[in-house]
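Sample 1 of the test manifest.
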Amino acid sequence: MNATIARPAAAPIHFIATREEPSPAPAPLTTLCSSCHLKDLCLPCGLAGDEVQRLDGLKFSRRKIKAGQTLYRAGDGFHNIYAVRSGTFKSSLALADGREQVSGFHMAGELMGLDGLAQGRHASNATALEDAEICSIPYAQLAELSSGSTSLQMVVGRLMSREIVREHSLMVLLGSMNAEERLAAFLLNISQRMKARGYSAHEFHLRMTRAEIGSYLGMKLETVSRTFSAFQQQHLLEVDKRHIRILDLPALTRAFEMRVQ
Amino acid sequence: MNATIARPAAAPIHFIATREEPSPAPAPLTTLCSSCHLKDLCLPCGLAGDEVQRLDGLKFSRRKIKAGQTLYRAGDGFHNIYAVRSGTFKSSLALADGREQVSGFHMAGELMGLDGLAQGRHASNATALEDAEICSIPYAQLAELSSGSTSLQMVVGRLMSREIVREHSLMVLLGSMNAEERLAAFLLNISQRMKARGYSAHEFHLRMTRAEIGSYLGMKLETVSRTFSAFQQQHLLEVDKRHIRILDLPALTRAFEMRVQ
DNA sequence: CGTTTCCTTGACTGCCATCAAAAGTGGTGG
DNA sequence: CCACCACTTTTGATGGCAGTCAAGGAAACG
């Protein structure tokens, strides 16, 4: 199915993600925000009960995305924003030399695609790191709905603002931290997000490769691997491939709070 | 109109660049978006004429900020967003060890403070790099006004989205470029923004120190200085302290487009 | 079961941070 | 006007952290 350049062997490039079928478009299930188990994390977060019901006016479509498939690509027309129902995604930008820069990871309840509003086309790619399910939220509908409700408008604004703040802290990380601090910050961030979803904050399974972590954190995959090993030797973590157990959360926190307020 | 730089043969050039129009203008009367000379760059950008007039309902206050003063600080309550009328600002975050991380520079017509919406308090500091003037736009008023107009709502959304995209590209820079590429990208960005404001794209005066540039680009001030020197030796630039003359814009562009699409 | 992808570890290199010094710039007040 | 001070910038010397190149093993895949 590799419609693209099936390079001989040896090209260590990720381009193979292109094997996605052109949207199988399964039957859209109607789902209501007001009865969604993710409503405290997702779009409705912060809205009062009756306000949430306004969201039920949105005509979502739910869709399954297989591991490795892309949900949208940079340049695609911007029509929807997407909420992760299950699974994990990465956002990435393509660099001119064929490499990719990972700009974020997205877990259940998080929104993707808000960067597309600026130009009317998506500014990044979204790729599933494991089998996943998403809600497509037509932006035009959401905008229309918000024009009737200040608080809903506020929520959308806040979500975008939060994205800006998130990127701020990533800039601090990239601009002023060393390898250990970067990885510590990354693991703590994952830990918190797992906890917020009812999972253990101390033990979890990473869905991304060392190369993807490295791209996100501005370091090479070998350095990521070495830093994991260093943390193990310091008895901060137990690492078995992608399975992480945090042994000393306070120490990890200290390591990275040295730099960030 | 290029109010800048008709260079008198040899004199080490100084402050020729951005001094705003002479007007001491002590009377800060009501200002209307529809008659503002920055309306094509600023908030009204993209709105039709009659839509712009809706913005005239906003009750701005104009305010002068002296060089070195802060407009707001991280943690301050979020009530306004700010549009730069003249002068240059930096946004920055305080790190735990007392250092600062510069997260952006803002020129005439650009908005600041949208990161405050997420938490209801500002997430960064805004400091004037030279004597400046700003419009304070009460966010509540803006939100109320947008609830009556889809296109105005759209504009605010787009502005936030643009901020997200801007930070994306900064992440690429910090995550995958070397010192020369970073500085080239920075200079080209300034160059474009100067051009968009009617100044020369080839010759301008930087308002920030080497340390601030370095913080923004994730490198030390010494490295910034050395990289400027290297560009001079390659005959890409002429540098005299903060006055920059770009000699070979295409080469500079190539140097940085190697990495970014 | 072979092939591909992912991860780890080692050896070496190089870019940039660090430390240090000197010269230039601007502002202040005697 | 000039001395003085704080700040900024440049340049050199040195060292360290992380990148690069390489190889071997483990896991996933078809």
